[in-house]
Amino acid sequence: MQERIVILGAGESGVGAALLAQAKGFAVFVSDFGTILPKYKSVLSAHQIPYEQGRHSTNLILSATEVIKSPGIPDSAPILVALRKAGIPVIGEIEFAARYTNAKMLAITGTNGKTTTTLLLYHLLKESGLSVGLAGNVGYSLARQVMDDKFDFYVLELSSFQLDTLFDFKADVAILLNITPDHLDRYDYDFDKYTRSKFRITNNMLPDDHFVYFCDDDVIRNYLKKHPADMNNLPVSLTKSQVRGAFMDDHAFEFRTGLSPDFRIKSADIPIYGSHNKINAMAAILAASMIGIGHKAIRKALKTFKNADHRLEEVGSFNDILFVNDSKATNVEATFYALEAFDRPIIWIAGGTDKGNDYSKLKALARKNVKALICLGLDNEKLKEAFGAQLTNLQETKEMEDAVKKSFKLAENGDVILLSPACASFDLFKNYEERGKKFKKAVKNIMLNKREVV
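Structure tokens predicted for UDP-N-acetylmuramoylalanine--D-glutamate ligase:
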């Protein structure tokens, strides 16, 4: 009898899993409780894969041999409760896809910094001539790429939700950047459960595999004291030297892998801003060196790296005034990293939908680095209350174009105009991407019409 795979969720990962399952000879059915995007419907239809949307048909789903679920579906969903009661195994797309490739897996997780680290590591491998795919939270689904199985390496950005559905998957290199409270509604508001979820990235690793982690993070360090990791541990630090791993030393990164000669890279040669990105860069470089990429190739590749949009992204400059788009900074912690990233005066554009922010964490940095604050939002009272007393130049607007114009009129040579909202975007924009794009468009208009503005 033909084994039956049911896919819950018809996004990138779900459709990729459906295609791979069909290619491997399974009977496949796709169920999405929401609305399936037209581009994914057309793929399913072209491959004659049956699907439903707007519901989960319990009788069809409970007939599965195995279920592959989208990371976005919580374990509390009724259909998952029914699957557990029926004893039907539920896994994720990454777990399923990894069964069908012998490629090396380089996996990255952390509450913050995953995407930057993943993209940098992928860039280092690709520019060094390796055959490498990009998957997980970025790129195409791993399952869809495994169908062709043309890569020797995969670089995977993994969220805690994806890690929760890994069981036999093994990383050859794992990176754990940091652990701070996030998505606790999915973990019964138990931070320990969330921490254990992040550490699932080390499951099944062997002593010869490589585990790169930020050892200055108290949560990571304390967890490892209680649960020592039995693999090649490579700590990364901003504050202390390491016998093995990587650390900051006199404005340079020192790398000690034990597999090749030690080497140094100047921090000025890292093409991304901020202390958090120093951590990300050290982790990516260390991981790349552990699979045999030499420091000369790494140095060369660093020169051409461009981070993902809306993450401390340089947009342009005029008269030594630098425009930086950090629209992805939707919380106070992310904006903290942005404000401390520059040793130049900052004109800061902030605001949006407040998520219960505690701005006290930013006051010392704002006092030191910020010369003016432009509040961009429908309700700016909390920002004004937090910074009005310490910043003599504070203005308000509800238009991005106006925010950039106000900032440019205040700016002097050597200043940074920084969009780092510390808030969600939903009061004035569809999402942080639209907010960032409008910032970039406004900057472009400034550059084209700078004489009129000045």
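The first strand starts at residue 4 and ends at 8.
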